[in-house]
Amino acid sequence: MTRTVTLGFDVGVGSADGRAVAATVTAAENAGFGYVTFDDGDLATGGVDAVTRAAFVAATTSTVGLVATASTTYAEPFHQSSQLASLDYASRGRAGWVAARSLTPDVAAAWGREVVSTDVDLGREQRDSVTVARGLWDSWEDDAVIRDFPTGRFLDQQKLHYVDFVGEKYSVKGPAIVPRPPQGQVVVFGRFGEIDTDLLDVVLVENEADARAVSGVHVVLDVEAPGDPAAAAALVERIAALDDAIGGIRLRPALIDDDLRVAARYLLPQLFERDLAHRPVPATTLRSTLGLARPVNRFEAAR
Description:
Layout: E1 6-12, H1 18-31, E2 35-38, H2 50-58, E3 65-71, H3 77-90, E4 95-100, H4 105-111, H5 119-137, E5 145-148, E6 153-155, E7 165-166, E8 171-172, E9 187-191, E10 202-205, H6 208-212, E11 218-224, H7 229-240, E12 248-252, H8 256-273, H9 286-290, H10 298-302
Helix pairs in contact: 1-8, 2-3, 3-5, 7-8
């Protein structure tokens, strides 16, 4: 049986024009990409953040996953987890999160926080942020919302839980203010070597040697998008020869619109024809597109 990969496309920081963002994402969806990733805007200069841009196109798309880059370094994890859960609701289960580090002092100033610069401190913030978010997404059991209008009962309080997280810099009690996301957990992406892979659903790697070092999680290899038809044909052969450890490809274009047109016309049709890649299925979640199971709620499992 031919092994197929999931295709992603990075739309970068992109335009502040909502119509331009929507047009790019719609074109990627129509081409057959499984998901798009949004880089975070420059908060220090008033850029539009990635979660907001992803939420803007949630209602105008139906199959493509919307994966927003959001920093773990300075943002409050309680509020960030709520935003990401809300994105999952807005997209009907197609939300993802690239849990990234912020490395510039300007971002710290924008948040009104002291600069975090050492690898140890950046790693701690990243680990704690993802741990808190995952705990909060589970703090509502799947059937905690009752909506029993005749009796006036809308929540089962026994199925809301404290996460009681205590870290080196902060503590979070919970529960969340948003019910458990449609996917159970928003799909968490992270770069290989930055964060423990046990906290990730998808590991982003830049070479096949790193991909072979990762096991137990879905792996995506970053590659530059083709700029011409000849490059697209070469990339098809490269994808055909990929190691089994790689479960997906994320194209990172130099020129978004130009490379997207070439990929849609020359690259993806060849991949689909040769069963090297697959389109997302309508009315399914990003987890389903990536071949990931819906996680069991930790509190339900404990009971």
